[in-house]
Amino acid sequence: MATGSEQGGTQRWTFRGPVELVPREIFPRPVLLVVVDTEEEFDWSQPFDRSQRSVGHLRAVGRFQDVCDEAEVAPVYVVDHPIATTPEAVAALREIHERGACEIGAHLHPWVSPPHDEQVSARNSYPGNLPRALERAKIERLTEAIESAFGARPRAYKSGRYGFGPHTGAILDELGYEVDLSPAPPFDLRADGGPDWSRAPAEPYRLDTPRRLLAAPNTGGFVGWAGGFSRPLYALASSAPGRALRLGGILARLGAVERLFLSPEGYAGADLVRLTRALLGSGVRVFVLSLHSPSFEPGHTPYVRDARELHSLLESCRNYFRFFLEELGGQSLTASDLRRHVAPNMRTRNA
After folding, report:
1. Using CA atoms, how far apart are residues 260 and 181, in angstroms rounded to an integer?
2. From CA 68, how far away is CA 61, in angstroms rounded?
3. DSSP per-residue string spanning 180-218
4. Is residue 256 domain-shared with residue 207, that is, in the same domain?
5. How confident is the model at residue 251 (pLDDT cuts 50, 70, 90)?
6. CA separation for the pair 169, 349 (Å, rounded)
7. Can you tell me the distance from the alpha carbon of 41 to that of 250, in angstroms, rounded to the nearest whole number?
8. Are 137 and 213 found together in one domain?
9. What is the largest CA-CA distance in the chain?
10. Could you tell me the pLDDT band of residue 346, with boundaries at 50, 70 and 90?
11. Is 109 in the same domain as 251?
């Protein structure tokens, strides 16, 4: 299971199995969740700043939602505190939510979420690194803000920067959450103070909490003919000597191993298809495609700097939805839909 440990005075959180995977057979058709990190605009190359709370890009949410509506995909907009407390942003999402075309979840960016009792730093940008009481207080305040804004309590949660920690599952359980969208296999974020997801499964699993919180990981994995040697080969390529030799690029060009993430940000449409086919071939049935809301308007993320890149991102989503739903015969669910689908196969811890 997932554990935390103290190393040199700094808490480092690492996913460690085994966990109870959701049975694959309950998904006769592949399932797609679309999760949007709906958040403030900030310069990704600069230090974290509490004053950066602008959310004007939400005026452009219709560009993305139109693509979803065409495919009959209901995305999960996981919203953070600046979004939930800005009337214009809430209004833009409320219209979509009230017609049943999306789900509203929670997304915690600690540096812009009260109470502001921690020092702003890279390490503290991962919510799971905060003291338990402070992490809980921030999630609780965020939950209340979302409930006040949208008239419904969120049931799905995603840690900012995939920053799940040793107390996060229990806190979410206490606050009535049903689905956690934080896992990011196979990424290891410890170099920046974050969690290590490198050994986490790409499939939904149950957390050992009283209400059996469901984890639905972001979809990522290794693709290539290296097969079982992919992980050590990629680790070698990521080492200092490997980077000096540009080994990662060589291995990718040879088709040996490549680490991919199911997102239209930074990954080509062909990459998304290759990753999906590879994981589907290994038995994965639930896929989570993710992106950031500031990419709906040029100039806010490294992925969408101009109108051409915005068009490319939207077309990548449109083409992937067509591939998944038509070519693969898949189905689209929200996080709460997934939980309801799985619920008959889940037991409470004390059952």
Report:
1. 18
2. 11
3. E----TT-B-GGGT--B-TT--SS-EE-SSTT-PEE-PP
4. no
5. confident
6. 14
7. 35
8. yes
9. 54
10. low
11. no
